[in-house]
Amino acid sequence: MEADAARVVVVTGPGRLEVVELPIPETGDDDGLLLVETNGVCGSDLELIEGSVDGYSLPMVLGHEPAGRIIRLGPAAQKRLGLKVGDRVAVNSQLRCGHCDGCRQTGTCLTFPGTYGTMPAAFEPGLWGGFATHMYLSPSATMVRVADTVTRSELAFHNPLANGFEWAVQAGQVGQGSDVLILGAGPRGIACALASLFVDARQVTLAGLGHDRARLDMARVLGVHRTVVVETNDADELRDTTGSHHLVIDTTPGSGSAVRQAVSAVADGGRLVLGGLKGRGVTFGIDVDIIVRRRLTMVGPPSKSTASFSQAVEALNSGRIHLEPMTTQAYPLERTLEAIKSITATDLNRPLHVRVDPQL
Ligand SMILES: [Zn+2]
Ligand SMILES: [Zn+2]
Fold first, then answer.
1. pTM over 0.70
2. Which residues have CB under 8 Å from 180's CB, separation 6+?
3. Cα(70) to centroid of ligand 2, in Å?
4. What is the pLDDT of residue 248?
């Protein structure tokens, strides 16, 4: 029998989370309901609870990497999505109505004041986050079916992996035979490496810092061809170690010096992808003429697109991406705050990826 209330994690103030009960709404012809199986935790969650991201109003529902089982889906939604009740799905956090000026012109929908995991709790019906037992499947939501063979820890990685496909394959144009250098041994960097390996890149090199050694070793187990440790902030150290590459992807958070190293390591005429936000106020001092003279292309897609989201889930479904060597940890809903804070712990053996499993 279906529950009549959902338990939902809500941000009520800076650094404050509460698990609240919200009624499960009626659903109709073109919407539905998800029983949440897992929701990945990432650095954005920490920024959101600390209030260091502008433009969101509290109380806010949290959890933008949801996946689970569809328990209600109206006939029109079934037809539109090609899905049915009982299907296991990963849900794209982006909500797009498809017909407002924002959707038509900039790609940022103006109908919704946020995405899944950043919406005000007061916005009906409130079930807009994946740190919850149930999530509302809006007519504006998109999702991709997940095979039952995908493990829960693999499933929880769908969102970072989608970003990896966006940065490496969509923006970086990695394909068969490519040679790619990736900076950063966190989930972003690992995801770019996995996406590159999935499309049969010839050589994938992952660069990390000294304290990333355990992660770099794990990356080798996941199939990365070469790993290097960057010891200093010297702009040319990375290039001197790895040689020049036609594609360099920088996924390091908070570091301007990494961008200088990345620029130095791009071959003339090559491409640099900035994978994700650095954080407020991070700058890099580079002689602009270097970019021009060396004919470099720099691109910075912030995160996944519909295309990369589908690619990531299909890659998981294919069984050709094995994340089992990756250390992950699952938390119950009540310990969501602890889960989010654990990813900033300085413990060198901390899990690479953390998730909340609301049915635990
Ligand atoms: Zn995230
Ligand atoms: Zn819209």
1. yes
2. 168, 172, 174, 192, 196, 201, 203, 204, 205, 245, 247, 248, 249
3. 24
4. 98
